[in-house]
Specification:
globular, alpha+beta, five-stranded antiparallel beta sheet, 10 helices, single chain, eight-stranded mixed beta sheet
Length: 391
């Protein structure tokens, strides 16, 4: 067995701060970036790639299945976004980026999909820039790193630009204003600008949604944007801001606005889609048995999740006897639940668990990263661990 964990030089942390990402290792985040790295075999990286490609194709087929059989309500999706979902599907709008979270994949543990962060995936600065900074400190000890997210996003934005040649390439990036969100949008902004977009950022509350389009006021001038990338969850918009949902639907369908990630990403992100995937592809080696009803999984060790849960909140792990092994609190408990068979994660010598994540750009795997926890559930208190490839 290979010793998977290696120490990183202490000076690596200063590079992160010098590059403008000190937020990730200051205050409450002081121990977020791990001082060591995990070694991943080249064949394991290829397995993550193959799994991600296969699972993404299954998601596309499942999305078509949901539309054909009108299963939107089963996914917890209200009627007010369905029209935009189907419109974005009809115009073949590209899915910009997402993140698959996997259990296993290291040593002999089978690679199993946990969930798909298809709409507002985060952890992008860590997975792109910070991984790169840390890798270069120990690059002679490895055979590389699977880290091409910005390059892939660049190609995706070029395809978006070419798909709408008659529309000015003006892109507005927006979020609810949290520092983590704006730092994540820096990755999107860099890729879009490299692809030829003129990109600006504004908090959602400062964006002007007019009947003719999306604008920002800059001094005495109103600047219009024909493309918008939002790090605001679709479920927040469709459930908490129905007026904004109606405006975005009208602007997209009648005025050519392009909102990214597209509306159908919320259907792919819904945890109930995991149950539909398993129904459609029960023989897939990458899918865990997942059900909408608890009775279907009693007698097995399982994980209970909420349909639109995030950050490892409102998770409960239950053993075959029905006893709770671990659980987390959170803000998503009111959503409906899914019940997914438990999958083993890789553990190091200290007993810490590792969850692998593969980013995709328009369906292409392009960046691998890991998070680590000393408990049973990967949540917002987990560490980010960079990876290195060995043969």
């Amino acid at each position: 067995m290979v010793d998977r964990i290696i120490d990183l030089p202490k000076e690596a942390r200063s590079l992160i701060t010098e590059a403008g990402y000190g937020w990730y290792q200051e205050g409450d985040n002081h121990d977020y970036i791990a001082d060591d790295a995990i070694m991943v075999h080249r064949d394991e990286v290829k397995a993550y790639e193959a799994a991600s490609k296969a699972v993404y194709k299954m998601y596309q087929k499942a999305l078509d299945h949901v539309r054909e059989h009108k299963l939107w309500s089963r996914l917890g999706i209200p009627e007010n976004i369905v029209k935009l979902i189907e419109f974005d599907m009809d115009r073949n709008l590209l899915h910009i980026c997402g993140r698959f979270d996997f259990a296993g994949g290291i040593e002999d543990l089978p690679l199993k999909l946990i969930e798909f962060n298809a709409d507002t995936c985060t952890i992008m600065p860590e997975s792109t820039y910070i991984q790169s900074y840390l890798y270069h400190q120990v690059r002679e000890q490895s055979k590389g790193q699977f880290n091409y997210l910005v390059d892939e996003l660049n190609q995706v934005f070029r395809r978006i630009k070419n798909k709408f040649p008659d529309r000015p390439a003006t892109l507005l990036l927006t979020s609810l204003g949290h520092m983590e969100d704006t730092l994540n949008l820096n990755v999107i902004k860099e890729a879009a600008e490299q692809a030829g977009f003129e990109a600006d950022y504004a908090d959602l509350e400062d964006v002007i949604f007019d009947e003719d389009g999306v604008f920002l006021q800059q001094e005495d001038v109103y600047v219009q944007y024909h493309f918008m990338y939002k790090l605001v969850p679709w479920e927040f918009i469709m459930l908490e801001e129905p007026e904004l949902m109606d405006i975005l639907t009208d602007l997209s369908i009648n005025h050519g606005l392009v909102v990214m990630n597209p509306a159908f990403s919320i259907a792919m992100q819904a945890k109930h889609m995991l149950t539909i995937l398993y129904e459609l592809f029960p023989e897939s080696p990458y899918l865990l048995p997942t059900y909408d009803e608890k009775d279907s999984i009693l007698g097995s060790k399982y994980v209970r999740k909420t349909n639109f849960g995030r950050m490892g909140e409102n998770i409960k792990i239950v053993d075959p006897a029905g006893e709770t092994v671990a659980k987390t609190k959170g803000d998503f408990g009111a959503f409906s639940k899914v019940y997914q068979q438990y999958a083993e994660m890789y553990q190091d010598e200290d007993g810490d668990i590792y969850q692998g994540a593969m980013y995709i750009g328009s369906g292409e795997p392009c960046c691998l990263s890991f998070r680590r926890r000393d408990g049973h559930i990967i949540d917002d208190d987990s560490e980010f661990v960079t990876h290195l490839i060995f043969e």
